[in-house]
Amino acid sequence: MRGVKGSSGTVYSRPRLAPRILIVDDAPDVRQLHEHFFHGTGMEVATAENGTLALDAVRRSVPDVIVTDVSMPIMDGLDLCRRLRADVATREVGVVIVTGDPSEQAQAALDAGCDAVLGKPCSRTLLLSTIRLLLDRRA
Q1: Residue 66's beta-bridge partner residues?
Q2: Please, is 110 exposed, middle or buried when counting C-beta atoms within 10 Å of its C-beta (0-12, 13-18, 19+)?
Q3: Could you say which of 5, 11, 31, 70 is the most buried, measured as most Cβ atoms within 10 Å of its Cβ?
């Protein structure tokens, strides 16, 4: 529950809105697949094709969780995560890295501050479970 402060200074609770997820991947088909799936789970979904555009999207509306690829042009997923962690406004955003080579990328992703590393292809069930776990931790 999030609190809303009334004019009298009293904090009223209201139900939490749908979780906001940002999907970051340079492959349009991957973005579209994730977007369609997460909309079906009742989540609000935004997409970006690289880390730079993701940071722009985050400045407009901070998501609850970001699901990002590692290898992308302009700014990769690891750089994106480092920048999110360096900013007080975004350091608590959950970050899930999805990579084609988790054994090679896992330590670098964790060092960058990512919360979870999943291999591609990953099951929708595993991805959704990971996101829900991160959302529960931040509730």
Answers
A1: 22, 95
A2: middle
A3: 70
